[in-house]
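Q: Structure tokens for this one, please.
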Amino acid sequence: MYSFKNDYSEGAHPQIIDQLVRTNLIQQNGYSEDSYCFEAKEILRRELKNTNAAIYFVSGGTQANLISIAALLRPHEAVISATTGHIFANETGAIESTGHKVIAVEKGDGKLEPADIEPVLSAHSLAPHMVKPRLVYISNSTEIGTHYTRTELQELSACCRKNSLLLYLDGARLGHALTAEENELTLADISRFADAFYIGATKNGGLLGEAIVLPDPTLYPDFDFVIKQKGGLLSKGRLLGIQFLELFRDGLYFSLAQHANTMAMKIAEAVKECQYTMLTVSVTNQIFPVLPLSVIEELSTKYDFYIWKQIDKSHSAIRLITSWATEEYYVDEFIKDLRRISSQ
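A: Here is the predicted structure, written as tokens:
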């Protein structure tokens, strides 16, 4: 059975494994004070076109979100998120456990816009009796495969700054957003528009790891204390630095994400040819075909995927995710099976 269930079923890109082995016995300082982390951060700063950015390597996405939001907010401050947002739907109350309320906004496409922010601010204006909305959380690409255009992110950033809100971007699948069809955003743009964000490697070729970026570190002088307090400071930080160094040294990060997107779009085109619809309009590596239950049942005998949402009594949306390591052979096999089953 071949899995289209997620983009972290495989280990890591061989180039990363080879470099981890090659450098294994070379002694380095701990806690990300090693030469690999230093070099990786310099490469990332060049990509960001921001020589002052502070960069911190942590092991996973939930950890990055928890640490960042805990560091950015005071105890009485809250987060605005779409209901699809990972911090709201899939992190076991990690943000709430640090004492911060998540104010959820229903969004069919998973993307927040200025028109979603103003009503939340109005509804929480009775100070000091209500939590104070202070941070807007978004994901790019989103949890349902959509992505922000440059204009959309710029407008949301302007709204946040107008209302003294921080803009935080979850970049678990940032590579896929940046290599999506018709994307205009760059890492440098995100460094200008967001107050904090992270670049995800776990879902794009890394064994594990995310890079938290603070474009203006003077706003958060004690961020490293929070990382240590929350258990995010690895003694063998070199393991994360080596991975980001390999991913960004020669553009591997972007080529891996592009491959995942290409494989997903190939399946999406076949879904449309079979006259099926999509739950969302996605140009990244997550797609959500709406299929008859009979088709889903037969496909599930050979392929692993999530049944995402029931549409009606005879149809459901499934989630298919391709990865940096998805072989085109299996994509072609899935398409052949989909066409065969659909023509019966």
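A few notes: The longest helix spans residues 252-273. Residues 4 and 15 are 23 Å apart (CA to CA).
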